[in-house]
Design brief:
With 413 residues, the chain is an alpha/beta fold. It has helices spanning 82-99, 111-138, 143-157, 162-174, 180-200, 204-207, 224-236, 252-259, 274-288, 298-307, 338-346, 383-400; strands at 7-10, 14-19, 22-27, 31-40, 51-59, 64-67, 70-74, 77-80, 104-109, 220-222, 240-244, 264-268, 290-293, 311-315, 324-328, 331-335, 349-358, 362-367. The chain has two domains: 7-109, PH-domain like, CATH 2.30.29; 111-413, no CATH class. It has a seven-stranded mixed sheet with strand order 10-18-17-11-14-12-13, with helices on both faces. The protein starts with 6 loop residues before the first strand and ends in a 13-residue tail after the last helix.
Length: 413
């Protein structure tokens, strides 16, 4: 913060820089080590935190050069020049390596980020332990009373959390015609739903009470048309691809698939709170069957499941780094293309599945008919077009029940 800012440029055999009226340069071959530190950019709002790689060049002369994408505009105010910095840094690293094949390159988190991550892991461990004890404590209590209490708590606590600001901004962009009061009502409904989902994890194995032969009141409702869709999938005997979204209780469609006899492999993300990850995984395994963790190599496991006659289900409504672009509420965002890629390779039918929260702790579950994916000039399923089709379907779901979606997620980045 207190050092003078330098401007760098590349020359055929040297790296040049200036600070003020002074200029200097160093030969690429004189740089013997490069350290890349990953850290958060300063001076950016917490809800827009952006990470960067800062280069530290160690020279044989003992000098150390720091190359960063930040340009200081004024005290505690920076301009992000990542657009040009990334190309510059890649070219610089290539030239340094060509000049010195033994160049040592180290990538690591900056100490500030390591401290932040350590604190986050510690808080996750403590918070996870508390949640685990609460889940085990309330399992013998009434599910509806527990869900109501958790919903009331989240309606009070939610507006104080960082995600509330993210959600308000997302809602204002998605529904520009909504008044501030209408957006606040949706926000309250979002936290109410989120609180209920948290409580329902403790009773997930108790929520399913669907019985088509019973005429009495039930917690789970499924229309006959949706039951017919599931029956046709069973009769055909071929695997299908199912997509869902973080709406209402997003675990219920996978529970319904297993209960209705659909052989489904579910892609899932491990909870951030490590102590409860095993507990939730055990609950999911008992209710949903085959689970595939969302980690490197997951696409191969999903393809293997399809090859062995097992259908695949996954949630596709969150940001996916390195994904493909789609339009969601008139804004561009990244989506995981895996489902579209699997459809292109296997020609499996694509269905959407969702849960809708109803009053009185009830749910209505829906399964769409097979969607018709767009195809390219060669007659093969078009992956970007298919993912846009799926995203548009999810957008229609969210517009129908906006208070039941996780608006606090940074979907647009």
């Amino acid at each position: 913060m207190l050092s003078r800012e330098r401007s760098f440029w590349l020359e055929p055999g040297t790296l040049g820089w200036s600070h003020g009226d002074d200029e200097d340069r160093i030969f690429y071959r004189d740089v013997y080590e490069v350290r890349l530190y990953r850290l958060f950019m300063p001076g950016i709002a917490a809800i827009d935190k952006k990470a960067m790689w800062r280069l530290h060049l160690r020279c044989r002369s003992g000098e150390r050069l720091v190359v960063s994408p930040l340009h200081q505009v004024r005290f505690r105010s920076w301009e992000d020049r990542s657009a040009t910095y990334i190309a510059f840094a890649n070219e610089l690293l290539e030239r340094l390596h060509n000049a010195n094949p033994q160049l040592k390159i180290t990538r690591e988190h900056h100490w500030t980020m390591r401290l932040r991550l350590a604190a986050r892991h510690r808080m996750s461990a403590v918070g996870g332990t508390i949640l685990l004890k609460l889940i085990r404590l309330v399992r013998d209590r009434d599910p509806d009373r527990t869900a109501n209490a958790t919903a009331r708590f989240m309606r009070v606590m939610g507006p104080w959390l960082r995600g509330h600001r993210v959600a308000r901004r997302n809602l204002a962009a998605a529904f520009p015609d909504q008044s501030r009061g209408e957006i606040e009502i949706i926000l309250q409904g979002m936290w109410d739903n989120f609180g209920r989902v948290i409580a329902e994890y403790a009773f997930l194995d108790q929520l399913w009470d669907f019985n088509p032969d019973s005429a009495g009141p039930k917690r789970i409702t499924i229309d006959q048309a949706d039951l017919d869709h599931a029956a046709r999938i069973r009769e055909i005997g071929k695997p299908v691809l199912c997509f869902g979204a973080h709406l209402a209780n997003w675990e219920m469609p996978a529970v319904a698939a297993a209960a209705l006899g659909l052989n489904l492999a579910v892609l899932y993300r491990r909870p951030d709170f490590a102590p409860i990850a095993r507990e939730i995984l055990d609950i999911r395994t008992r209710l949903m069957g085959t689970l595939i963790p969302a980690e490197p190599g997951a696409a191969i496991s999903l393809k293997y499941a399809l090859d062995n006659g097992r259908s695949v289900g996954m949630l596709v409504d969150q940001h996916f780094t390195g994904g493909i672009d789609v339009t969601f509420f008139r804004r561009r965002c990244k989506v995981n293309p895996t489902l579209g890629q699997l459809a292109r390779r296997t020609e499996c039918a694509i269905h959407g599945a969702r849960a809708i929260r109803l009053p009185g702790g009830r749910f209505r579950l829906e399964l769409t008919e097979a969607l018709v994916p767009p195809r390219d000039g060669d007659g093969k399923i078009d992956v970007p077009g298919t993912m846009q089709m799926i995203t548009s379907a999810i957008e229609s779901w969210v517009r129908e029940h906006p208070q039941q979606w996780l608006w606090m997620h940074r979907r647009w980045r």
